[in-house]
Amino acid sequence: MQLVVISPPHSVAFETQLATKMLAAGLARFHVRKPGWGAAETAAYVAEIPGQYRARLVLHGHHALVKELALGGAHLTAASRSAHSLPRLRAGQTISTSFHSLAEIKQHRRRYDYVFLSPIFDSISKKSYGAAFDLGEVAATLQKLRQRPGYRPQVLALGGIESTNLAAAQQAGFAGAAVLGAVWQSPDPVAAFRTLQSVIG
Q1: How far apart are CA 15 and CA 111, in angstroms?
Q2: Tens of pLDDT along 4-29?
Q3: pTM (2 decimals)?
């Protein structure tokens, strides 16, 4: 099971240094989500992360930078999905997105390398964003999808992920989990990431 960390939407003190420490500790993917930022700000942010980790960075906007800076991939928002065109990337760079229903995953599963499904648990960073899924139904659906030839994409749990429920997400059949609040609302984000990492072993 892989862990993905999503950046906070607004800047946090020493954010890129903290992200670098998580990447050095084995973070598989770091999603850079800064809704209000322009391309120059995003590129400057990426420049603060050592080159050996760039292939693990995924951008939620300014997708041209993914190819230009040799990053890991592009994550499509609902708005960018509605454009009906996928960004032009290099071989090996991933395309991901977020869905909020199992029906969307079934319908669009072949277009993406991996997707987030949310909210699985009550969100930590968005207090009014409650869990919307029955884990038994999720487990049955994911099992059926995995049995199909050429199974794609990997489905990662998002929403309220923390150390106390990460095992439940794993048991439901998720290939991974994406984390935001449990890391960035902690007084020690790197320690919080390591705790999550220890749960999945």
Answers
A1: 32
A2: 999 999 999 999 999 999 999 999 99
A3: 0.94
